[in-house]
Amino acid sequence: MRPLAERLQSRKFITAIVAAIIAGLKVYFPDLPSEAIWTVVGCLMGWVAIEGAIDAVSQLAKWAAEKLNSGKEPTKEEPPV
Questions:
Q1: Which of 9, 18, 47, 81 is least enclosed by beta carbons within 10 angstroms?
Q2: Mean pLDDT, to the nearest integer, of 64-72?
Q3: What is d(CA 31, CA 25) in angstroms, rounded to the nearest whole number?
Q4: 52 CB contacts (<8 Å, ≥6 apart)?
Q5: Do 17 and 40 form a contact (C-beta atoms < 8 A)?
Q6: Separation between Cα atoms, residue 40 and residue 14, nearest integer Å
Q7: Per-residue b/e over 37-58, b at no fewer than 16 CB within 10 Å?
Q8: If you average pLDDT over every residue of the chain, what do you get?
Q9: Distance spanning both ends of the chain, measured CA to CA
Q10: The whole model's pTM is what?
Q11: What would the mean pLDDT of 4-31 be, rounded to a whole number?
Q12: Residue 22: closest CA among 37, 7, 38
């Protein structure tokens, strides 16, 4: 199980909190302009997309490094004399 601090920083959790805040604001302030809501939602979607791309590139780099290292034969060290 992941630590609480890591779970609080997850994209799903932050997105859910922002959605709840927007819904609450819309209930208490029905005249809230929809452009403001779409601006916040658009920024949040962009952030999630960029973070997802960073994660994908990181995984791809890790895979490529493992692939390159697996092709090399391990060197045998000579025992000390």
A1: 81
A2: 82
A3: 10
A4: 11
A5: no
A6: 13
A7: eeeeeeebeeeeeeeeeeeeee
A8: 84
A9: 49
A10: 0.62
A11: 86
A12: 37
Residue in the block written with tokens 């302009």 = 33
Three-state SS string across the chain, please?
Answer: CCCHHHHHCCHHHHHHHHHHHHHHHHHHCCCCCHHHHHHHHHHHHHHHHHHHHHHHHHHHHHHHHHHHHHCCCCCCCCCCC
> Could you give the angle at which helices 11-28 and 34-70 cross, rounded to 10 degrees?
180
Would you state the structure tokens that stand for residue 5, as one six-digit string?
A: 């601090």
**Residues 42, 80: Cα–Cα separation, whole Å:** 63
Two tokens, residue 22 = 């927007």
